[in-house]
Amino acid sequence: MQEEIESVMDAVRKHHELYENALPLIASENITSNTVRVLLASDLSHRYAEGDVGNRFYQGCEYIDEIEKRAISYAKKLFEAEHVNVKPTSGVNANIAALFALTSPGDKIMALSVPDGGHISHSRYSVPAIRDLKLKNLPFDPYEMNIDVAKMVKEIKEKRPKLILLGGSLFLFPHPVLEAREVADEVGAKIVYDASHVLGLIAGKKFQDPLREEADVVTSSTHKTFPGPQGAIILCGNGLSDRIDKAVFPGTVSNHHLHHVAGLAVTLVEMKHFGAEYASQILSNAKALAQSLYEQGFDVLCEHKGFTESHQIAVDVRGYGGGDAVAKKLEKTNIITNKNMLPSDEAPDNPSGIRFGVQELSRIGMKESEMREIASFLRRVVIEKEDENRVKEEVIELRRGFQHVQYCFDGKDAYKFPEALYF
Length: 423
Ligand SMILES: Cc1ncc(COP(=O)(O)O)c(C=O)c1O
Fold this sequence. Notes:
By secondary structure, the chain is α/β, with parallel strands linked by helices. The protein has 15 helices and 17 strands. Helix 5 (127-130) links the parallel strand 5 (108-111) and strand 6 (134-137).
């Protein structure tokens, strides 16, 4: 094979090997079942199907229509949504479409700042800027790690935004959707709930249900706690379906990613069967890891609230050199995490925090006892400054027993490079 190609293949094989032997704790990632991996490598990845089911701009879409129709219908049932759009190619794309559908240039919107947990696509550097919106940050209570409801109500009444964007990237506790709904109605604002991080928990009915709490639109990535292929979904009521669909196609997507739609359809079925059990285990694992980290001496946020009600845990590591230094140190032991801004932070380079997410470790079958073992690895590396190579050997040993994806119908050898499985 061409040397250049072999170099790429080699890097991919090494990436697989790293992840077979690592503890992936990044809160925005997950692993799909093998069925989904096969679909991602299918011919669908080469095709175009602009337009809607039954009304395409291209021929050859008979089976693509069947796939997309099924994805939409499975999602409608799982999330009890009147209308579903499966075309956005990423969470940011879904947010762009929702904000373009529901606002006009010059409108006021409210969203969380990035240090308080908002995603960059909610910030003044991203979607609000390209839509020329006036952004006002939602008031946040750092002790509660949640939106300050009383201040939010007051500010919505005063500022009278057109849209309130809830949900976020550092997302420990359910957001006050019902409380926002009441006052949003008073001022005529729409509520968009970005469920990117918590969609898998919502699918398993173990987190707030934003549609039942009367958010107007739910946007979401499909690859964080929801363990599908990279991509996104938008859920809404029939009243907004037209505006949302047009803002997606032709507004912000021409050809959607058909192999991802097929993978999404399969993951929706997996979540229908296994979602409740999977989401329950995530919540138990997150609490177990948080409690153990706290007992081992870490400054885990929100002890007074049981640390977390999602897949995430936030730890203040300023005492150990900050989030950047700690994340890099952990990487040497094959523990993969990310630095994270906390509410007091101003600059993103070396923020105070580390964010852990337990969804991928839960998906490969880890339970509370493994969480306690991982907390002890973290203490040994970060607090006791033990030799990283020694801990790495134990990380690899622990991972050896967890190579299959659970909560699906076919998860063996999940981290193997596909050539070994299918060629
Ligand atoms: C709350 C939230 N919204 C949107 C996104 C963006 O999703 P994507 O990476 O699929 O564009 C993220 C990514 O982490 C996120 O945390």
